[in-house]
Design a protein that fits this description.
37% helix, Amidase signature (AS) enzymes, 13 strands, globular, eleven-stranded mixed beta sheet, 486 residues
Length: 486
């Protein structure tokens, strides 16, 4: 291994105090926001070789830090996240740097406004210091589809950090900032969280606004945090969550909020997803998951096996419905010349063709073609309509099983982080990395990945899922499980 954690494989040491502690100290004047921002920028520079970051927003971040410190000096409250640095996946519209979604077609694009999530975080004093790498347009499970570079796993630089939010997950694992933002369309927060040994949270669909985030598939896209602890994820979610007039799919937040109290696992009914514990799981991953399940039982949880018969079809359904939606969403970019200038291209057709060739990468083109095909005349009923029918059946099966259990658990992924290049030329193998995460997106349920051990020195994630809108109870139980597994 060649990662920063080879001697301390648990990666338990923390550079940053908990988010609430940092913000409280800034508000009391015990810490300077400027010092926190400079510390984050320094760590980003020192660990540049992991390729987690596309761009820094240093100038704007330092200006915001100065303003926060001045507020504190005047005795004014600077917000619940005062001075806390964070990193945004580069599909979030943010001031201070380009927003590229790691694609050439958006190179040179400067956001005219910020994502709702960014505005909410900044209103509470958080400071965006950088934009994280991702698979271009969030299409992928490894960041190898980024048009710029591949992010390296903090535990082993020969392996992927996961995707599509690989840069965000690696940033948190590398302690570049106390938290990062990702997007999860089929596991893109949870998978890299599992691969990098951090916490990754996908909220109930609609709980967090999608406004100002480059769209992938509008019926499954979810915005969420990556953090070191469940408590930190809950604090960030509490700021992000709620209705937004700019996103008509958003829902009301829990009146109790998401800042967590302590709960006991004793008597909690937890279901192990039978279909996730079958063949295809790496032995080391299986061992970690089984040990985690035993630890939950020892803590008093009532654990049983449950079956979701249609879940074996979830990946196929996902790779019909999502390409169909993204083929439509990406149509707005096709032919646009973001960041490219062709002074000699007097022929518009020539300009158009150059834009397409330089703009969309191989994976985007593959998904556009799949999506266009399944929506085309003669194939809509055979593919898209059937996939929607199975999606409805899957939603019904989740609703039925949640009548008997409060929580569903299983592995986040059947494997640990794979080698860079290992699956790059095998799209089907790459898609299989999402086999245990896509179902939560299809049914709109909240889900979280928490670290549950190491397999051959590489992190393994335990996935927990709850019914729609039960985000608070999911986070509370995840926090309890985190304490048991620590």
């Amino acid at each position: 291994m060649s990662g920063i954690f080879e001697e301390n494989s648990s990666a338990a040491s923390r550079v940053w105090e908990p988010i609430t502690t940092l913000a409280a100290k800034v508000n009391k004047g015990e810490l300077k926001a400027a010092d926190l921002v400079e510390k984050s920028l320094q760590l980003i520079a020192e660990k540049e070789d992991y390729k987690a970051i596309i761009a820094v927003t240093a100038e704007r971040a330092l200006e915001r830090a100065k303003a926060i410190d001045e507020m504190v000096a005047q005795g004014k409250p600077a917000g619940r996240l005062a001075g806390v640095p964070f990193i945004a996946k580069d599909n979030y519209l943010v001031f201070g740097a380009e927003t590229t979604a790691a694609s050439n077609i958006l190179k040179g694009f400067t956001a005219p406004y910020q994502a709702t999530v960014i505005e909410k975080l900044e209103a509470e004093g958080a400071i965006c210091v950088a934009k994280a790498n991702l698979d271009a347009f969030a299409h992928g499970s490894s960041t190898e589809n980024s048009d710029f570079f591949t992010t390296k796993n903090p535990y082993d630089q020969t392996r992927v950090a996961g995707g599509s939010s690989g840069g965000s997950a690696a940033s948190v694992a590398l302690d570049l900032a106390p938290f990062a933002l990702g997007s999860d369309t089929g596991g893109s927060i949870r998978l890299p969280a599992s691969f990098d040994g951090v916490v990754g949270y996908k909220p109930t669909y609609g709980l967090v606004s999608r406004s100002g985030v480059v769209a992938m598939a509008s019926s499954t896209d979810c915005m969420g945090p990556l953090t070191r602890t469940v408590a930190d994820a809950a604090v960030v979610l509490d700021v992000m969550a709620g209705r937004d007039e700019l996103d008509s799919t958003t829902i009301e937040r829990d009146p109790a909020g998401y800042v967590l109290g302590d709960v006991d696992l004793k008597g909690k009914k937890i279901g192990i997803i039978k279909e996730y514990m079958g063949d295809g799981m790496e032995p080391g991953v299986r061992k970690c998951i089984e040990q985690a399940i035993e630890a939950l039982k020892q803590a008093g949880a009532e654990v049983c096996e449950v079956s979701l018969p249609s879940i074996s079809l979830a990946l196929a359904v996902y790779y019909i419905l999502v390409p169909a939606e993204l083929s439509s969403n990406l149509a707005r970019h096709d032919g646009q010349r973001f960041g490219y200038s062709y002074p000699d291209a007097k022929d518009l057709a020539q300009s158009y063709e150059k834009s397409r060739g330089l703009g969309f990468g191989k994976e985007a083109k593959r998904r556009i073609m799949i999506g266009t095909y399944v929506l085309s005349s003669g194939y809509y009923d055979a593919y898209y309509k059937k996939a929607q029918t199975i999606r409805t059946k899957l939603i019904q099966e989740f609703e039925a099983v949640f009548q008997d259990v409060e929580l569903l658990i299983g592995p986040t992924a059947p494997m640990v982080a794979f080698k860079i290049g290992e699956n790059a030329n095998d799209p089907l193998q790459m898609y299989l990395a999402d086999i245990m995460t896509v179902a939560a997106n299809l049914v709109g349920a909240p889900a979280i990945s928490i670290p549950c051990g190491l397999s051959d020195g590489l992190p393994v994630g335990l996935q927990l899922m709850a019914p729609q809108k039960h985000d608070r109870s999911l986070l509370e139980l995840a926090k309890a499980a985190e304490g048991v597994l620590a």
